[in-house]
Automatic annotation (TrEMBL):
<dbReference type="Pfam" id="PF00126">
    <property type="entry name" value="HTH_1"/>
</dbReference>
<dbReference type="InterPro" id="IPR005119">
    <property type="entry name" value="LysR_subst-bd"/>
</dbReference>
<comment type="similarity">
    <text>Belongs to the LysR transcriptional regulatory family.</text>
</comment>
<dbReference type="GO" id="GO:0003700">
    <property type="term" value="F:DNA-binding transcription factor activity"/>
</dbReference>
<keyword id="KW-0805">Transcription regulation</keyword>
<dbReference type="InterPro" id="IPR050950">
    <property type="entry name" value="HTH-type_LysR_regulators"/>
</dbReference>
<dbReference type="InterPro" id="IPR036390">
    <property type="entry name" value="WH_DNA-bd_sf"/>
</dbReference>
<keyword id="KW-0238">DNA-binding</keyword>
<dbReference type="InterPro" id="IPR036388">
    <property type="entry name" value="WH-like_DNA-bd_sf"/>
</dbReference>
<keyword id="KW-0804">Transcription</keyword>
<protein>
    <submittedName>
        <fullName>LysR family transcriptional regulator</fullName>
    </submittedName>
</protein>
<dbReference type="Pfam" id="PF03466">
    <property type="entry name" value="LysR_substrate"/>
</dbReference>
<dbReference type="GO" id="GO:0005829">
    <property type="term" value="C:cytosol"/>
</dbReference>
<dbReference type="GO" id="GO:0003677">
    <property type="term" value="F:DNA binding"/>
</dbReference>
<dbReference type="InterPro" id="IPR000847">
    <property type="entry name" value="LysR_HTH_N"/>
</dbReference>
<feature type="domain" description="HTH lysR-type">
    <location>
        <begin position="1"/>
        <end position="58"/>
    </location>
</feature>
Length: 304
């Protein structure tokens, strides 16, 4: 079997359509289809079947796609061993992250990577729904993702999941809020306020929704945005309260708004790195991942 043809099955499993695979690999859809047909003839088993206007992998195709992952990982391990022998951590490492994770990690990460001038870091902000981070791993070497406490990580067979930090979520209130003098609050204390929220199905939104269910009162959300500094500004100017990540917002809270821990609910988000297993073996990727882990260790009040 041709390794590159097997890799097409893996790409089809991850991306869902021949068109998406062709776009990712800079080939024509007809060329991808032809390669898949050639592989089918070689193995003598149907690997792809039509479903409506698209295609999907058969059980045999999925089994070979899984084998492709293991083959690619073994090749990457061999290449990494040779690169380590030559002390040659070089090349581009593409990272997808979300804005507040960049605030937490990126300055220190860039400082650490000065010791590795052969690595070219390419970072893009990709703030998506927590269920959509895993799909980004098809196009990036490292995906920095976050999820609420109640959500399980992606299946370990598909991706390597590296925990970085659990960041508590606090309630941000204006300095003149009736609760601003408290050390902590309960769900019932705050759920009936006006809220500045994030888009539906983002980790902070899931926590707020769980708080509303617990209290039996719907949360009154007057504005939604992914931009944390805007959320903080709206809170500071008295337009509502919000759930915000403690480590990220703490420095900007002084003299502007109060951060109040919740006493009766475990509110937090888990930040982790998602990687395809083969890309995780690249020496340059391992160096960048180790730098992320070292930066995350600075926030040691919550165990990784």
């Amino acid at each position: 079997m041709d390794v590159s043809q097997l890799a097409l099955l893996r790409e089809l499993a991850d991306r869902g359509s021949v068109t998406a695979v062709a776009a990712a690999l800079n080939r024509s859809p007809s060329a991808v289809s032809q390669q898949l047909k050639t592989l089918q003839r070689q193995v003598g088993v149907e690997l792809v079947e039509r479903v409506g206007r698209g295609v999907r992998l058969t059980d045999a195709g999925r089994a070979l796609a899984d084998s492709s992952v293991r083959i690619a990982t073994a090749i990457a391990e061999a290449e990494a061993t040779w690169a380590a022998y030559r002390d040659d951590a070089t090349g581009a490492v593409r990272v997808a992250t979300f804005f507040s994770a960049s605030e937490l990690f990126l300055p220190g990460l860039l400082t650490r990577l000065k010791a590795h001038p052969g690595i070219r870091l390419e970072v893009e902000d990709r703030d998506v729904s927590q269920d959509d981070f895993a799909a980004l791993a098809a196009d990036y070497d490292i995906v920095i993702a976050h999820r609420s406490d109640d959500v399980l990580p992606p299946q370990p067979t598909a991706l390597r999941v590296v925990p970085l930090v659990r960041e508590p979520l606090d309630v941000a209130v204006p300095l003149d809020h009736p609760l601003a003098g408290h050390d902590r609050v309960t769900v019932d204390d705050v759920i009936r306020d006006d809220w500045i929220g994030v888009p539906v199905d983002f980790p902070l939104d899931r926590v707020l929704a769980a708080m509303a269910v617990r209290a039996g009162v719907p949360a009154r959300i007057i504005h939604r945005t992914t931009h944390l500094p805007l959320i903080e500004n709206l809170v500071a100017t008295g337009h509502g309260i919000a759930l915000v990540p403690r480590h990220t917002s703490r420095e900007r809270s002084a003299g502007r708004f109060r951060l109040l821990p919740l006493t009766d609910v475990r509110a937090g988000r888990r930040i982790e790195a998602l990687l395809r297993p083969d890309r995780a073996e690249r020496l340059a990727v391992r160096v960048v991942l180790d730098a992320y882990i070292a930066e995350a260790a600075r926030y040691g009040d919550e165990p990784r």
